[in-house]
């Protein structure tokens, strides 16, 4: 074997060697860990992992728990409202900002900055604002509107909507940016042609612009739904899951069952269900995105 | 974007324009409201907050809550203020961002310019890891960090953030390098330049913009993390966890003005980054969401 051969062989291996640390980390810390958690969900682990296989008992138990049903119902309410309102506000603001608005350069950063903040800061800020004692209700009383009442955050039936409010505040500006980028990518000739044909503004948007924004809708949906399933910090900071369990979500359920109630098997089962929910949304999306690229 | 491209074909009437401006301004107020409340109330004496109006400007300005939040506020059992936790966050975020960015750049380079069979599948595996709910890895991660002797330490948190950030940085660099002409790389190969030489001399000099995006994205994400910090922080908790402990503490009088100031401290680094390089931040968000 000549020197040259050895060198070119080495060259062939270098790229794979460079990639391998990241790949190894991902395989162990992501996929290995997922398998381990799946395995734990079939054992009766309590405070520490153990290997007593119990089949689907944890899953049966999980779906029999009222607290889990509360978390799932809350997730359904929270995620559907969160996604629909964020997309609604985002689309509206993007369309409005796209009307040659003076001061667009000022407004855009104002809409977007919440995304730079931690959910803990956001949750903390909204917690004060919604607190009847020092927040909005108190302010209204000070301004002379004595009968004003706004105590959703203290009310079991309404507390989940305060989580929606804070989450929408945090991410709707980002959704606006996604739609704005989509709008700016639309060929103006199409719009002009439609206008010459006598289409009203309303019809122009409904029949031409909004259908053309399909990719932006899809991305927004995928991003928002995976954020919704992962929501944890915001609930911790805003309501701590309360009042009672009124704002418990799967992410907070998993944490408290695993680490404070020492029901690790059940906690692992709930994590597996969270992963499956996200995988059902993300896998087709990533698959189609990666396929197009080739 | 040129002015011509921005020109909108849609014409709106005068009344509509007024309404549009009104809606846009109302939303601007909505987004600014919490920041305004935090800022004004962080410079008020406590009795003005408890006995007064949250939206009013301070009658008596005081910077005291800021000092208290920074250096003497009771967090957990120690009256340390946010300072040590802020430093923890810095010690964690700087190496984590640096390592993750370097790995991402190299991965992106391999995945676009040194392609091999199955590389898209490997990339897909890394990309999916960006979106997993982290609850699925919490239990084994706690065990592994313990085994490695890294539980409750800053190196442990750095490891965690590198592992779950590298998918994103790889995504950014891969998409960016994909648009870079492969012919240039080929020509350099024929001239006998090796793997690292090509990266160093050809790819790296043009990587400025995407590096800004990647660094901002990782910095924001890692600084703002709470789940990993509270699960594995131990005695090295980051500032988000400290803020939550301070605010949720049920002991003594609730010093709202100190809480407000502490929240601003925790938000300050990412806000600054956002103010200085906001455009890139948006680009990062978009890249992280739109293109695979």
From TrEMBL, chain A:
List, alphabetically, the PANTHER family matched: ABC TRANSPORTER PERMEASE PROTEIN
Entry keyword annotation includes Cell membrane:
yes
- InterPro entries for this protein: ABC_transporter_permease, MetI-like, MetI-like_sf
Q: Which domain of life is it from?
A: Bacteria
User: Can you tell me where the transmembrane regions are?
Assistant: 21-42, 75-98, 110-130, 158-183, 204-229, 264-287
Q: Which SUPFAM superfamilies match?
A: MetI-like
Give the record's GO biological process terms: transmembrane transport
Topology within the bilayer: Multi-pass membrane protein
> A GO CC term?
plasma membrane
Its recorded name reads Carbohydrate ABC transporter membrane protein 1, CUT1 family (TC 3.A.1.1.-)
Q: Which Pfam families match?
A: BPD_transp_1 (PF00528)
Which CDD domains does its entry note? TM_PBP2 (cd06261)
Q: Which UniProt keywords apply?
A: Cell membrane, Membrane, Transmembrane, Transmembrane helix, Transport
Q: Where in the cell is it found?
A: Cell membrane
Chief subcellular site?
Answer: membrane
The similarity annotation says: Belongs to the binding-protein-dependent transport system permease family.
Q: Domain ABC transmembrane type-1: where?
A: 72-287
TrEMBL record, chain B:
| Span of domain ABC transmembrane type-1 | 86-277
Pfam family name, one: BPD_transp_1
Compartment list: Cell membrane
Q: Which residues cross the membrane?
A: 18-39, 85-109, 121-145, 157-177, 198-219, 260-282
Its BP terms in the Gene Ontology are: transmembrane transport
Q: Which domain of life is it from?
A: Bacteria
InterPro entries, alphabetically?
A: MetI-like (IPR000515), MetI-like_sf (IPR035906)
* Main location class: membrane
Supply one GO CC term from the record: plasma membrane
Supply the alphabetized keyword list: Membrane, Transmembrane, Transmembrane helix, Transport
Q: How does it sit in the membrane?
A: Multi-pass membrane protein
Q: Which family does it belong to?
A: Belongs to the binding-protein-dependent transport system permease family.
- State what protein this is by name: Glucose/mannose transport system permease protein
């Amino acid at each position: 074997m000549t020197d040259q051969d050895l060198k070119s062989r080495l060259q062939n291996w270098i790229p794979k060697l460079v990639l391998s640390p990241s790949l190894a980390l991902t395989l162990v810390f992501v996929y290995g860990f997922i398998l381990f958690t799946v395995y734990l969900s079939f054992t009766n682990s309590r405070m520490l992992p153990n290997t007593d296989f119990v089949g689907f008992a944890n899953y049966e138990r999980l779906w029999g728990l009222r607290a889990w049903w509360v978390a799932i119902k809350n997730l359904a309410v929270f995620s559907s409202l969160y996604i629909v309102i964020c997309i609604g506000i985002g689309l509206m603001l993007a369309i409005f900002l796209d009307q040659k608005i003076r001061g667009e350069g000022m407004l855009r950063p104002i809409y977007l900055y919440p995304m730079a903040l931690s959910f803990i800061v956001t949750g903390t800020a909204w917690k004060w604002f919604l607190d009847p004692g020092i927040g909005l209700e108190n302010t209204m009383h000070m301004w002379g509107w004595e009968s004003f009442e706004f105590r959703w955050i203290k009310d079991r039936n309404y507390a989940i909507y305060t989580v929606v409010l804070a989450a929408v505040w945090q991410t709707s500006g980002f959704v606006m940016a996604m739609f704005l980028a989509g709008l700016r990518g639309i060929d103006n000739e199409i719009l002009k042609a439609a206008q010459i044909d006598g289409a009203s503004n309303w019809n122009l948007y409904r029949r031409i612009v909004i259908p053309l924004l399909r990719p932006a809708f899809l991305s927004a949906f995928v991003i928002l739904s995976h954020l919704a399933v992962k929501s944890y910090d915001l609930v911790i900071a805003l309501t701590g899951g309360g009042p009672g369990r009124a704002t418990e979500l799967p992410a907070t359920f998993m944490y408290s069952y695993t680490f404070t109630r020492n029901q690790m098997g059940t906690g692992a089962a709930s994590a597996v269900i969270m992963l499956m929910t996200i995988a059902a949304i993300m896998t087709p999306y990533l698959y189609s995105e990666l396929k197009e690229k080739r | 974007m040129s002015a011509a491209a921005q020109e909108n074909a849609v014409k709106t009437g005068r009344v509509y324009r007024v309404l549009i401006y009104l809606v846009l301004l109302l939303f601007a107020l909505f987004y600014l409201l919490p920041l305004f409340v935090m800022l004004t109330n962080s410079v008020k004496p406590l009795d003005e907050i408890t006995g007064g109006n949250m939206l009013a400007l301070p009658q008596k300005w005081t910077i005291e809550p800021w000092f208290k939040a920074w250096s003497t506020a009771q967090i957990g059992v120690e009256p340390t203020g946010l300072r040590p936790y802020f430093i923890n966050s810095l010690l964690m975020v700087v190496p984590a961002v640096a390592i993750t960015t370097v790995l991402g750049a190299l991965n992106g380079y391999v995945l676009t310019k040194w392609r091999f069979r199955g590389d898209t599948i490997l990339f897909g595996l890394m990309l999916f890891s960006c979106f997993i709910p982290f609850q699925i890895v919490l239990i084994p991660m706690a065990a592994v960090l313990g085994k490695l002797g890294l539980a409750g330490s800053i190196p442990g948190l750095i490891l965690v953030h590198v592992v779950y950030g590298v998918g994103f940085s790889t995504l950014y660099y891969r998409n960016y390098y994909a648009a870079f002409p492969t012919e240039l790389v080929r020509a350099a190969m024929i001239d006998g330049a090796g793997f690292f030489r090509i990266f160093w001399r050809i790819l790296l000099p043009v990587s400025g913009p995407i590096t800004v995006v990647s660094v901002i994205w990782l910095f924001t994400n890692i600084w703002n993390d709470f789940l990993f910090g509270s699960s594995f922080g131990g005695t090295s908790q980051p500032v988000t966890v400290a803020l939550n402990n301070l605010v949720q503490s049920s002991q003594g009088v609730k010093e709202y003005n100190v809480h407000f100031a502490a929240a601003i401290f925790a938000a300050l680094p990412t806000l600054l980054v956002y103010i200085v390089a906001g455009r890139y931040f948006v680009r990062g968000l978009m890249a992280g969401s739109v293109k695979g």
